[in-house]
Amino acid sequence: MARWNQDDIKNLYSKIDGFIDERTMDLHYNVLHKKYVDGLAKLESDLNKSIPLHVYLSKIYSTEFSLEVEKKELLIKNGGGHYNHTIFFQTLTDKKIDFKEGNLKNDIIKNFGSFDEFVDVFVRKGSSVFGSGWCWLVRVTGNVKFSCFEDSYYKNLTLNIDRPTKLIECSPGDLIIVCTDKQESPIMYSDDLKICMGCDLFEHSYLNVFNANKVEYIYKWFKHLDWSLLERIYTELVLVNKPLGITETGKISLP
């Protein structure tokens, strides 16, 4: 049996009305996510069994990381793909779960002014991503600098040399919206970026239901998040400076 596997998310497989249909779920989960897991399995002999996947990903761009360039690229693609998709699928729900008062909601309001403003900024930034990628809410746990294209809510990890940039410094405790390319993740860039939630922006995630309306897709994504689980992630991991890991059975790892 392969070391890393997908969770059997039966509650999501059929559909989530108005957000995911059967065709999208079958392609996204049973074909594409599985492809990342299968690709990751081919690298097992090169990876230490005692080291969790998120640790490998957090060191992927470090000079201390010793892996052939070709295999490193495969780990970014397949390891990042499995890690990102596990977070995406595990934090969705087919039930209505209200976003109650708690540490996550309080800090979102503190950083963005209101929950609605946070959602609007997240949607605006996520929908501006061209092609494939992800949009994340992360908490900064150290002093981090980013190249920033627009307002201070948005720090893009990928420097675009074709557009003017300015340097933004983030302080510990800041909640920021970060976009990454393809299957990259914020943890690949800094241990001081702790993931709170992430939205898949690949076209296969939304085209069949929303056509090219990425804005509507992201707004609907917010309505199907498991806010109880996200509060646990934020309180039990993020606030105590622990990384968001996943188990070998494809679940989010919580204390």
Automatic annotation (TrEMBL):
Keywords: Metal-binding, Oxidoreductase. Destroys radicals which are normally produced within the cells and which are toxic to biological systems. Mn(2+) binds at residues 28, 85, 200, 204. Pfam families: Sod_Fe_C, Sod_Fe_N. Belongs to the iron/manganese superoxide dismutase family. One of its GO terms (cellular component) is cytoplasm. This is Superoxide dismutase.
